[in-house]
Fold:
Amino acid sequence: MIDLHLHLDGSLTPEIVTKLAKLQGITLPSCDYEELREFLCVSKDCESLNDYLKCFDLPLSLLQEKEAITLCVKLLFEHLYSLGYQYCEIRFAPQLHKKHGLSQKEVVEAALSGREEFKKQHSKSNFDAKFILCMMRGSDNQKENFETIEMAREFLGKGVVALDLAGAEGLFPTKNYEVEFKTAREYEIPFTIHAGEADGAESVRIAIEFGAKRIGHGIRAMENEEVMKLLKEKAIPLELCPTSNLQTKAVSSWKEYPLKKFLDYGIMVTINSDNLMVSDTNVAKELKLVQNEFSLSVEEMNILKENSKNSVF
Structure:
């Protein structure tokens, strides 16, 4: 089982949250795991990606110290291992973990330390995970984004595998980040871009033009056949996250979900979780969901799994 699109801060279970709070002497809204789930999982009333992103406030508040980040990564690795994952690419934005004075470098090093602690304790495990560093969409964080690029350059091949651009796509269009991705190309840092989730097919086209090796979500590519043709011709994988896409109202129903359309067109589709906790899912659940919703054949299911294997950074 492989997950190519999983956010660190959106995947903290109540158990992990409780341990992080205890480590730092932080009082949580509740000590009851079921009640904590209400704070960590997206509500059924979610109306948009912007609503969905509010669920990250609590976990992010617990990830502002080096020890907490290290412990969080170690515990998340253990959780993924227990779920039967073989490989995962976990993404996070170092700039969102600086509220207590950490530098981006200290944040990345803390995450890498958590990975190393897991590997030492599970030396015979066949599970591994690596990191994708996210730049963030916003009106005044270009300096922070360029620092994230430098971190990706420094730690590439040392546990970090790529860059990403995340955040409120509808408010801050992909086209605004041309300079950042030009720099990433010059540094030969591979990257994925969240595109075609809260914005249309044009966002996906621009991400392709920037040189994205994969597209995060990308479901609204279905709105433009020329963009679909580009994805197919360039063999650029889409990191689909079905449950999340429905929760954020990127699509309104399973009937509208373009998975089968993409498969039939010959686009490389991968199935991912996005956020284990916020969306209350994992790759095994997602694969079962799409198999049932679209009556996928054994051959089609194997294609989805092979696509993930062939799309890792």
Remarks:
- The domain at 2-310 is CATH 3.20.20.140 (TIM Barrel).
- The longest strand covers residues 128-136.
- Residues 129 and 187 are 23 Å apart (CA to CA).
